[in-house]
Amino acid sequence: MKRITSEKGPKAIGAYSVATKVGNIVYTSGQLGMNPSTGKLISDTIEEQTHQALTNVKTILEENSSLMKNIIKSTVYLNDINDFKAFNQVYAEFFDKDDFPSRTAIEVAALPLSAKIEIEVIALVNE
Known about the structure:
Elements: E1 2-4, E2 19-22, E3 25-28, E4 31-32, H1 46-63, E5 71-78, H2 84-92, E6 102-107, E7 117-124
Parallel strand pairs: 5-6
Antiparallel strand pairs: 1-2, 2-3, 3-7, 4-7, 5-7
Helix pairs in contact: 1-2
């Protein structure tokens, strides 16, 4: 087992690792729509926060020998389930058509930094 940090992605904002690698699988911690340079949310829109959160996931995976197409499952936490359609449109742009990983989307009462979305994934490492 290896705890992972990210050089290009956002730093952890609490007592956790950005990701953990076990064998040939990477488990990311939840990623917000946080700008890695400033440590602040990229904007207050669900679309921009979703895009940034997925960009952060992509960065972490690529730094650790994985790719978005290697995602086995994602878990998505939405501050407002009414944002599902807008989130889903942005989410779909990060994957090849009809090659989406398994996913769960859940509405939650609140997220860190008052974010609208948080995304975590489980992905295979390239062999």
